[in-house]
Prior knowledge:
Chain A is an all-alpha fold. Chain A is built from twelve helices and no strands. Chain A has a single domain (66-280), classed as Orthogonal Bundle (MetI-like fold), CATH 1.10.3720. In chain A, helix 3 (62-93) crosses helix 9 and helix 7 packs antiparallel against helix 10 (225-232). Chain B has helices at 5-20, 40-56, 69-78, 92-100, 171-183, 192-201, 212-220, 231-239, 269-280, 282-289, 306-311, 316-322, 328-345; strands at residues 32-35, 62-64, 87-90, 104-105, 131-139, 163-166, 205-209, 226-230, 245-247, 253-263, 296-297, 323-325.
Amino acid sequence: MGAAPASRDVTSYGMGLAAPLALFFLLFFVAPLLQLLWLSLHNDTAGLHWGLGQYLHFLTDPFSLGVLGSTLLLGAEVTAVCLVLGFPIAWLYQRVGPKLQTIIILIVLLPLLTSVVVRTFAWIVILGRQGIINATLQSLGIIDTPLKLLYTQFGVVIALAQVQMPLMTLPLITALGRIDPNLDDASCSLGAGSWRTFFRIVLPLSLPGVIAGCTLTYAAAITAFITQSLIGGGQMLFMPMYLYQQASTLQNWPFASAISIIFLLAVLAVVSVFTTLGRMSRGYGGA
Amino acid sequence: MIMNRRSLLTTALTLGAMKAFPGLSYAQARPLVFATFTGSWEEAHKAVLVPAFRKANADAAMVLDPMLSVDQIAKVNAAKANPPIDVMLHDPGPALVAIGQDLVEPYPVEKSAYYKDLIAEAQEPMGPAPFFQVVGLTYNPEAVKTPPTSWADLWKPEFKGRVGITNLNSTLGTGWLVEIAKMRGGSEANVDPGFKALEELKPNLAAVAANPGALATLFQQGQIDISPGNFNAIQILKARGVPVEFVAPKEGAIAFKTTIHIVKNSPNRELAFKLIEAALTPEVQTTLMNPPYLIVPTNSKVTMGGEIARVLAKDTAELKKKFVFQDWKKINEQRSAWIERFNREIKI
């Protein structure tokens, strides 16, 4: 190819640079996704008869809808726990010296440095009948018989919250770091108390980070197959396990495909709600 | 040689493709591929079966490609004309699926030197069973002082909140439910009594594990004291120092045939046959019966010994008496309905 024209605008860039990644996505993401969609539109496992039977089956079945609902609810619970626990950490991070900052960031990142499987097994040890929590409560005489923590919704939420916490804290730290600290002082000097300052200044300005953190945490929590099945057990059914059961054990690929598509759409819907909120918050934050 | 960008890119792409799809360059002459199971099975086969096969076949090239039964079926299904696997290993349920989907060849019984020595239950013309998996009662001897003797013991009030089971995704879970149904007058075609029994078991249930492997963790953590369990899995736990014991219940231990099959259209048909022959020899089966593998043999020429003789059976005659084989053809017909029902009804 010849030299670039002399008049070329140096601030523009060719889309060609994105082509390799685009091609990769087309081949290994879009194509399989289309195949999934194609398969889900068949009524029989061999994929010969077209029809919407799989979708009808899912959408008219209270049990399946229940699984979808409980999965989306699980995501909401985990996201809420992460937000409530993660926000103070991020807030603290912006207000301590550099030494403490390093320690905080290390603690926040630590979970990311071990595999999800290891972290989840650690939670089994913590939540088990003879686990740390039960042993402590028993030795303090607070309870007589061990509490059932493992294989409960509570256990799944707690474990997932810890596992996904960095996804919430990191965007929050970034968002809070962008807020001009002078605004706090200005608010105080104009007579607002700390809580009023927090709700009227800090929270609105940090909303983009909150939204980003919630989106990431939510998406990660509802699709966390390993943690859900190890802590939740075999009778607590969430969408990923339902999907696995249909695809792998029962070899019912069309229904499994339909479940994936429905799950995908449900997640997209939730994420788009978050993004819309994000867009609105940007207007709010700028006002 | 002058390299311009275009030729560099082409070369890079070609090299990359050859690396990513090695089948491109030597599609016809690939080594024998045996898809065994992951974990202890892979270890046992790598240490015993592969060397025995290579010794008997002039060091023929072969690779182990461990994966779950269902994945083996999916992979072969995706390339029926030129399958990437030559020999498959299956639990009874998936074996019937593979046969039903026309993925395996009949075993050349008349050519086989060892087929006729297998005990009758292991003689499957579509692929013989070189091993059995055995499911019985597993318990923690520190918490359970009188060893259980029957499946019915799981319902005893003293085990309130101490029993673990698995859901029906696994062969173990499904096979166990069928056995419970049989105990209460049901059969492979009618597991209603089994579901009723499960309902009554609820006060005792501490956990419904997502897979048999998770049961092991639950024993280790003291979450459960008693459960149906796989003989081999228990031996592995025991070897790690976890207090667990296995007993065959008086109703009979459930035996699953692990069958081995030649894949249809395999380019290595002859070697595949030789590998299966090696798996059927008394020598290989004897080695695999001894510690640390403790895999139950199917060749009647193998003399039972060690832990297997102590806990399961002293010889093939006793083995036949103490083992229960199930009709997986019948089970497969309704399994998806049962899984659905289990999903809905078993909430603790």
